[in-house]
Each structure stands twice: as structure tokens, then as C-alpha cells.
Amino acid sequence: MKTLTGYTILYDAECPMCDLYSRAMVATGMLDDGGRATYQQMPEAACPLVDRQRAMNEIALVNTETGEVQYGIRSLFKVIGNSFPVFNPLFGFAPFVWLMSKVYAFISYNRRVIIPAAVHDGDLQPTFRLSYRLIYLLFTSLSVGFILTKYAALLTEIVPIGGAYREYLICSGQVFFQGIIISLYRPVKRWAYLGNMMTISFAGALLLLPMLLIAKFISIPVTISLLYFMAVAGLMFLEHIRRSKLLGLGWLLTATWVAYRLGLLVLILN
Hints:
By secondary structure, the chain is mostly helical. It contains 11 helices and 4 strands, in the order βαβαββααααααααα. Helix 7 (130-152) packs across helix 8 (166-185), helix 7 packs parallel to helix 9 and helix 8 packs antiparallel against helix 9 (190-215). It comes from Mucilaginibacter myungsuensis. Keywords: Membrane, Transmembrane, Transmembrane helix.
């Protein structure tokens, strides 16, 4: 594997995903030992060359000899293409580059609601893009609705079968309901809270997948399926509390989040 020397990749110290893949690049020899640094502790040689806000939004790759700076998906393509030249034709294919740049932006502009970090006064934050947040809310709502629809089939002895779109309506309804609450209570936190809330729902839905997979091969008693669902819901509750504290929102949003779910459960069972 060929090492890309003379380059430093600048990543967000508050982003575990950024830390993970930049660390992997160094560990596997794609970058040399000094080939990564946080933009928060940017090397002095790179300071005049890098747009700090853009580096916050998109990981930056700095050529320490020429001063050239590449951002986002192009910086990753540069590192990967150097080690695996077979991919360079694909990385030069304009439609693929456009598509991957959108995927990268979707993750990057939502990374602080995917994996939250404590915010301190004076910290440089990723630029907020409403379009990417709305797409994220739509993606997670549809994904959670789909998985819950499948899981509901394991609970039919306890929970009545609903319409084809019941779970989708529940997910979108919670976004709408909590959106009203947060808009009245702390509107400045609206999109950060909704993004975090749907990340919790999405993570909870992913935790249901192993049970769905097992149910494909063996018959699972409904009590086991229910207990597993309740355990996942308990983890989601704890995570909601943790993230609400990070956002400085206290207990109100957690209380309304629980009330919405309990209210729907009562209506469904009746």
C-alpha cells in the first residue's frame, strides 16, 4: 500500500467517525505517522492555507509542500486513490463524485446529531443546512416506520394489527408533535433536538433487527419479543435523557416524548 506523504488531513476532534477513519488511514499506512491532526489544533504551517469554517464542515487535506487544500469527499478520494489506484477512474467519474459528495454532505452536516458532543461557548460549529436536516428527518422516519411495521408482526397476539401506514404515521407524528413542543419551549434548539430525537429512534429500530432476523428462522414467543422491545425502549429513554442534557433542555422534552408514546399505546390497545 502506497503512503501519501507530505499531506496532513484535518479532522474534527469532536467527531468520533472522523477520528476513526483518519486514525485508520494512519494505522494502515495510507497516511504517514504525522499525516493527521485536528482542525482545532491545526499545525501553524496550515493555518494561512485552510478555510477554518469549511474545514469544520468538510474534512480538509493539506499539501504541506505546495499549500494545496482539498475538502470533503475529494480529500478522501485523494488518500484512497493514492493507495488503491484502481479506484481513480471511478473517482474521476463526475456523476459518481457528485453522488458521493451529496452522501458525504448528508452525513457531515448531520454528524453532530448522529453522535452528539458537548458544545462550549466559542466553539466553531458545523454550518447548519436545513435541507440536509429535513432529509435526515425524512430518512430516519421512513426507516424507523419500515422496521417497526415488520416488528409489529411479532406482537400481534398483544398489539392489534394496524393499517399499512400506522408505524409511519406514528414516527412522522412524533416529529410533528415534538416539533411543536420544542418550538414553544426552546425554538433555537428545534432542529438540533429533532435530529437527536430521530437518531435515537433510528438506533432503537436498528436494535430490533437482530430479533427480526432470528424470527426468520425460529418461532419466538410473543413475550420474548415484547420484553426485548421494552428493553430497547428503556435504552432509548436513557439516551433521550443524556442527549437532552447535552442540549441543555432538561426534562420537559423527555416527558412529552414518553407521553406521546404512552398515549399512542393506549389508543392502539383500546
